[in-house]
């Protein structure tokens, strides 16, 4: 895998009037988003708000209205958008002999897993795994990985094609607190060192407050978007989440301000 450029700040992804219908039922309607490279964008909302449907539409897995365009703001050209994807879970049979190498080689290289391991392919996969500190898992059976290990393997697999956009559908579901911290630090690393944008679905509102650049509150359409504090303090957020006080919200705001260089806090 060749070295990926750091975010240039000149690329943007625009989602224009995206909608999804199932018969007469409206699942999503007139979704408009503007995503910049080098940013972590988190979609939040109640169950049934259409979050996973939006990801599937962006992957062109389901019929939808509207379009997605990738623009280079330096010269205004529209380029082909390359998308990486990490699902919420994988259906791996118990005691399946498939290794991490087999999984990634068969996906990226269409290389039959029953053939002998190719040194050049193993080297490329190992380099991607190193980014997420799981290179030692190359020959481990996928079915024996922990949730956090599988998550990092899937992230390595997703970035090997050097995507412009990385879509993550609740990738930390069931991961413990240490795994959550590691995941969001990894997101920080990706947005600072890779020329891509990240769209993440999450229910972990405290972590979103701490790490997100943009929060998108979804309820069939985008009802509010902006910085985490702007969204969390909005009337739209309070209406959807019932005005409940979030654990760690104040400490999260303090941490966010300190990371931005503001050390004043009453």
Structural overview:
By secondary structure, the protein is of the alpha/beta class. The protein is 34% helix and 24% strand. It has a domain of 170 residues: Rossmann fold. It has nine helices and ten strands. The strands form two sheets. A six-stranded mixed beta sheet has the order 6-7-8-3-9-10, sandwiched between helices. A four-stranded antiparallel beta sheet has the order 2-1-4-5, with helices on one face. A hairpin with a 2-residue loop joins strand 1 and strand 2. Helix 6 packs parallel to helix 9. It starts with 10 loop residues before the first strand and ends in a 7-residue tail after the last helix. The C terminus is likely disordered.
Overall pLDDT level: 82
Low-confidence spans: pLDDT under 50, at least 5 residues?
262-266
What share of the residues does DSSP label as strand, in percent? 15-25%
What coarse outline follows from CA principal-axis ratios?
Answer: globular
Number of strands: 10
What's the CATH topology label of the domain at 1-82 and 165-178 and 193-266? Rossmann fold
The helix tally amounts to 9
CATH C-level class of the domain at 1-82 and 165-178 and 193-266: Alpha Beta
Order of helices and strands: EEEHEEEHHHEHEHEEHHH
Give me the secondary-structure category: alpha/beta
Instruction: Give the % helix.
Output: 25-40%
CATH homologous group name of the domain at 1-82 and 165-178 and 193-266: P-loop containing nucleotide triphosphate hydrolases
Overall radius of gyration = 19 Å
In the CATH hierarchy, the architecture of the domain at 1-82 and 165-178 and 193-266 is: 3-Layer(aba) Sandwich
Spatial ordering of strands, largest sheet? 6-7-8-3-9-10
